[in-house]
Amino acid sequence: MTTQVQPENSNIKEFQIINNQNDNSIDMREGTPVFQYYENILSNHITASAQIVETGKSIEGDDGKLRNAIDGLPIRGGEIVRFEAEDKAGNKITFKGDKALYVNKISNVFGNKSNITYNLNFCTKEFLANAQTRCVKRYKRPAKISDHVKDILKNTLKTTNFRDEDIEETQQSYEFIGNSRKPFHVITWLAQKSIPADSQPKASAGYYFYETQDGFQFRSVDGLLSDKEVASGNNKSPKAFKYKGTNFSGENSGPGNIISYEVLNTIDLQSNMMIGAYVNNTLYFDPYTFECESVEYKMEDSQWNKVKTGGSETVDYVKPEFREGPTRLMTRIKDNGILPSGADGDKQLSTWKEEPSKDNDEMASNMVQSVMRYTQMFTLQLQISVPGDFSIRAGEIIYCEFPDKSENQSDNKDIGGYYVVANLCHQITATDTVTSMSLIRDSYGKKPL
């Protein structure tokens, strides 16, 4: 649904682009009708974009003539961008110093001598560094996967843009070789194998690796849905929002009010069955014994009362006859007898002899579970817009209330309640600031605030 948003105070405190060679800079605030900032739990990095409109006489070039910013500064890619904005409540978005943005792309340039319009896309330093670095060493046991993630961020990507508490501890250790793959690729690959430290055996697996204003996050599906204070980021209580209708005057225009909302998806039964979200069968081949093992995995057997859900209903919400199968067949080769621990060949051989069939990657405990939990996480999807709020982060929990279409209830008991912010966009214009969010949850039913 679409609605008319009332004007709201928005303030871009600083927006400077700095030349790479001579440190000349230009203030872009007056020529920016739209600035958009994005976070997404399915993206390894944050992004931002700006639509620029200028007269073509913004800066003096080397020849003394006034030119537009692209030709006069000039902007050629890789320029440092210092940006700061503040919402109505005083929350800020700040990218300066080590956390400054960089110009990544210039597009849609058109105009004439009197005015010019173009778009600038911005990225982080880590996004560019990811293309310049590779994971080449052997990552050894007994380090856990979460320890490897910290190692890659700190020593390979060489960033300090993360906090130890934002790298959620994993249950299992793991040994692998980087094979000259990029850091973001390796961490995303590890995320699919990761099991939360406090998870019950063979119940849940799967992590998300993404970036917010606070830095890089490595969080499990259950971790995002578990403790409401921890999951909401910065140890703060979840923000609550309520839809009160299309009248945005007076109290309805303030914080905590939903401007508009739309239910994007509730369930796609056939697609979920195709990917084996409810029941599947995996054939594991053991290269050490040359034997095959068939394992059937059912959602209700392994996840009933074992996983943390966002809604009040349990995960077995699909009719039992459609949870029979298997609806997907998969094959995997076990990772045993490979990369035994040890400083030299003799010690590695000794380690292997002690447990020749030990599985380096516990596939039966992570692969299928991560497929199911990733799918379940997007069972219920909503899109909402609220007055600009720069304190919200992707991956945190918020609480929403929506009206019920029936006459007997004041609020919707099915789609209301806690949600994880899957992605967000802060849109800043000269007249208003709006935060748009995609919300996801793995089950129906409203839990009380």
Question: Can you tell me about this structure?
Answer:
By secondary structure, this protein is of the alpha+beta class. Among the domains are: 11-124, no CATH class; 269-367, no CATH class. The protein contains ten helices and 24 strands. Strands 1, 2, 3, 4, 7, 8, 9, 10, 16, 17, 21, 22, 23 and 24 form a 14-stranded mixed sheet that branches. A hairpin with a 2-residue loop joins strand 14 and strand 15 (215-220). Helix 3 (145-156) packs antiparallel against helix 4. The protein is globular. The two termini are 26 Å apart. The relative contact order is 0.15.
List the helices and strands and how they pair.
Elements: E1 11-18, E2 25-27, E3 34-40, E4 47-54, E5 59-60, E6 66-67, H1 69-72, E7 80-86, E8 92-95, E9 101-111, E10 116-124, H2 125-130, E11 138-139, H3 145-156, E12 162-167, E13 176-177, H4 183-191, E14 207-212, E15 215-220, H5 221-225, H6 228-231, E16 239-242, E17 260-265, H7 269-274, E18 279-286, E19 291-298, H8 299-303, E20 329-333, H9 345-354, H10 363-377, E21 380-387, E22 397-401, E23 417-429, E24 433-441
Parallel strand pairs: 12-15, 16-22, 18-20
Antiparallel strand pairs: 1-2, 1-7, 3-4, 3-23, 4-10, 5-6, 7-8, 7-9, 9-10, 11-13, 14-15, 17-21, 18-19, 21-24, 22-23, 23-24
Helix pairs in contact: 3-4
